[in-house]
């Protein structure tokens, strides 16, 4: 039978980006790039967000692509953020059809209609891409925010540096733990995601995982869940100190329900740890799978 440590290592590797998935993401990127470039003047485009930082969880969806527009598109910058999103939405509907295209507050989501099979398997395919129209602004970028109608500043390089530093300071286990908790957050058992946006888990992890890697996944997760529960109600600024707080969409009601879910997760983690102490390894594996989701292995 798998030990808990072996099970976590297997789980961790299942949540890692593999070559086939990267190949599929790159093919989708090329396909979307070709189309978007035929409709808008684009200087540069690149895969970014959690996908590029290796903090995206499985199944792989909503992979961000920044489309950096040329000066000739700058007229959008003086208009409400919704205008550029309207035009990207219309263009993408022409290519992918109404049903595949979903407007979001800072991007347009294109769904490829990939089926999620048993145990969250997707045949190494990515489910969807978030097309983000952006302008370069010195070292930073500006992205449209439909909620306020304004453009907000961001800097993926700074976010990536913070994640890399945190990962190294945590025995190279930080990104794995972030992916595991984001996987828990995506579990349909919650109904709506407890922590929204899930980027907030990564932002909180920059401060909630401290003191260095302790050597045991189960204990690390238990205390990570507990600290997240304690601190979910705080204001969490953009780690690059450019955009609005990442916690802006967590209203008091959402904070309360996320706190309940996180506390329960910490408690269930504690019970799973106790099962191992009682020599009930098989029961402990089942408890972790029930807590985290079907990619956690039983064998
Ligand atoms: N409030 C913000 N201010 C500045 N930059 C932000 C803000 N929110 C998100 N970003 C940047 O935009 C990227 C894409 O946002 P998104 O919400 O898709 O997060 P993500 O890290 O890609 O997580 P997920 O795995 O949920 O897609 C983030 O990775 C981050 O670099
Ligand atoms: Mg994203």
Task: List the total number of helices.
Answer: 10
The total strand number stands at 7
- Helices and strands, in N-to-C order? HHEHEHEEEEEHHHHHH
CATH architecture grouping of the largest domain: Orthogonal Bundle
Compute the number of structural domains.
Answer: 2
For the residues shown, what is the average pLDDT? 98
Percent range for β-strand residues: 5-15%
Main beta sheet, described? 7 strands, mixed
Low-confidence stretches: none
Rg, rounded, reads: 20 Å
Small-molecule binders here are:
adenosine-5'-triphosphate, magnesium ion
Q: Given the C-alpha coordinates, what overall shape results?
A: globular
**CATH fold label of the largest domain:** Poly(a)-polymerase, middle domain
SS class:
alpha+beta
**Span between termini:** 7 Å
For this structure, what is the CATH class of the largest domain?
Mainly Alpha
The helix content is: 40-55%
Overview of the structural elements:
This protein has helices at residues 4-14, 19-39, 49-53, 81-96, 156-169, 174-186, 199-208, 217-231, 252-277, 281-292, and strands at 42-48, 63-69, 101-103, 108-111, 128-137, 140-145, 150-154. Helix 7 (199-208) crosses helix 8 (217-231), helix 8 packs antiparallel against helix 9 and helix 9 runs antiparallel to helix 10 (281-292). It has two domains: 4-13 and 158-292, Orthogonal Bundle (Poly(a)-polymerase, middle domain); 17-155, Beta Polymerase, domain 2 (2-Layer Sandwich), CATH 3.30.460.90. The radius of gyration is 20 Å and the shape is globular. Helices cover 48% and strands 14% of the residues. Strands 1, 2, 3, 4, 5, 6 and 7 form a seven-stranded mixed beta sheet that branches. Residues 49-50, 56, 62, 64, 152, 154, 156, 159, 197-199, 202, 238, 242-244, 246 line the site of adenosine-5'-triphosphate (ATP).
